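Annual report, structural modelling task.

Input specification for the iron/sulfur cluster complex:
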Amino acid sequence: MSASAAMTNRKKTSLWAMLIIVLAILVLPLTGYLYVSVTDQPTAVEQTNPRADTWRQVREGNKGYSAVTGQETNVLIQGAGQNWRQLRNGPIATYGAWLLSGVLVILAAFYLLRGEVKLNHPRTGRTVERWTLNERRLHWTTATLFILLAITGLSLLYGRYALIPLLGYPGFSAYATAAKWIHNVLGPVFMVALFIILIKWFKQNLFTKVDIQWFKDFGGMIGDKHPSAGKFNGGEKLWFWTLASAGVALCFSGLVLDFPNFGQERFVIIVAHLIHILTAMLLMAFSLGHIYIGTIGTEGALEGMTTGHVDVAWAEQHHDLWLKELEQQEQNPKH
Amino acid sequence: MARMKFLCDAERCIECNACVTACKNEHEVPWGINRRRVVTIDDGIPGEKSISVACMHCTDAPCQAVCPVDCFYTTADGVVLHDKDICIGCGYCFYACPFGAPQYPQEGAFGARGKMDKCTFCAGGPEEDNSAAEVEKYGRNRLAEGKLPLCAEMCSTKALIAGDGDIVADLFRSRVVRRGGRPDNWGWATAYKD
Ligand code: SF4
Ligand code: SF4
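The model returned the following structure:
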C-alpha cells in the first residue's frame, strides 16, 4: 500500500469514527425518553368510550386548530417537557456535578501522588518554535470563550442552588441576565473559532500506530516510559477528536437553542438542550484534564502556548518524532 | 384554604374565544401575547371538541422546577405566580410546561425573549394587590377583590369553570350525572396531584 493510500484509509476511518460518535451523541440522550416514558405512564385510557380516541389524541400532543396564532398554540398537551424536567433536574444535574467534581478530585490526587512530570534532561537553552503567534491567538481566543461559556452555562444549571444563597434573588437575576446574554452571543463566536481549529489541525491529528503505543504507555503520565509522538501526541489527538465530535454536536445544538426565531418546536429544542448539556459536561470534564496537563501537570508545556517556543529537551522528551521532523527540514529545506 | 383549579367542559365549549378576549382586555395583555387560547380537535369533522386552555396552576409545577432563577411561587390558593423582576426570559418554563402557557414578548433580534407572561388566575404578582406596578406587569388582581377569573365568569356556555377545585369538581360531576357520559375533566391528570 502506498503512503497516500494509507493516508486516505486513515482519513476514512477517522471520518467514520467521528460520524459514529456524532450519531451516538445525538441518539443516546433520547434513550432517556424510553426510561421516563416507561416509568411515567399516565393512568390507563378507557377504551370503551367512543370519545376515547379524541382524548387519546389530546394526550399525545396531536395538533388541533386554534384561532390564537403563535408557537404551537394548536397543541393542547406537550408531554416531552415533563421528561425534560426530570432528566435535567435529576440525573443530568446530579451526575454532571459528580463528573466535574470527580475529575477535579482525581486530578488533585494525581498531582499529589505523581507530581509534575519533570524534564528528564536539563534544559539545553536551545528552543524550537511550536506554535506560531496566530496559532496561539487562536488557541487562547477559543480557550477564553470556552471558559466564559462554561461558567455562564453552569450558572444557568446550578446557579439556582449555588448562587442564589450568595447573591440573593435580584442579584442572581441580574447576573443570570448577563450570563444568558453572554452565552447566547459568544456561543456562535466560539463555534467559528472551533471550526477554524478543526480545519487547521485536522491532518496532523489523524491517529497513527505511534499513538497506540502512546496510549499503552499512558502517555508517560504513569510510569517512566517516554512514548513517541509527533507534533500532536495521542492525548492531544483524543482531545481534538472529542472536540470534532462532541464539540460540533455542542455547537449545532446550541444554535437550535440560540435562535428561537425559526419557530422550532419544543420537542426539538428539548432534544437539542439535552445534547447540549451532555456534550458540554463531557467537554468540560475533558478540558480540566487538558488544562492540568498543559499547566502544572507537565514541566515546560505551558511555555509552548505562551511564548510559542519550547526547549529542545522538552521536545525530545514529549514530541520526539516532531523534533526529528523539524531537524530534517532544517537539513534539507524543501527546494 | 381553597385549591384553585380551572376546568373546561369540552361538551359545552363552542369555541367562541370570548375567554381569550376577556382575558386580553381585562389585563391589557401586550400585543402578540395571549394568556388563554381555545384549541379545537378534529376541527370541521363531526364530533369535534374544543377546549379552552391557559396555565392550569399545576401541583409541583414543572415551570417552577426548571426556572434557573427560581422566580415562581405558589400561593396559599394553589395559584402559580411568578416575579417578572427576577425572570430572565430564558424560555425554560415554556419548554417544561405541558400546556404551553408561558408566553414571551419578543425583545431584540433573533427571537430573543423578554420577560415571561402567563395566566395569573387573575391573581396578579408579588407586588401589593392592585397597585399600579402590579396591574402594569400582571394585570388586575381579581382574586384579591373576592372575584374569580374573568374568562370563566363570562363564559357564555359556562364551559370554563374556575374556582375551588372541590366545588368545581362537584359542579362538573353533577352536570355529567344529568347528561350522562363520562367525566372528562381535561388536563387534571396532568396538572393536579392534590
Ligand atoms: S400550566 Fe404550565 S405555566 Fe402553569 S403551572 Fe403548569 S407548568 Fe406552570
Ligand atoms: S422564562 Fe423567566 S420564568 Fe420562565 S424559566 Fe426562564 S427565568 Fe423562569
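Chain B touches chain A through 51 residues (CB under 8 Å).
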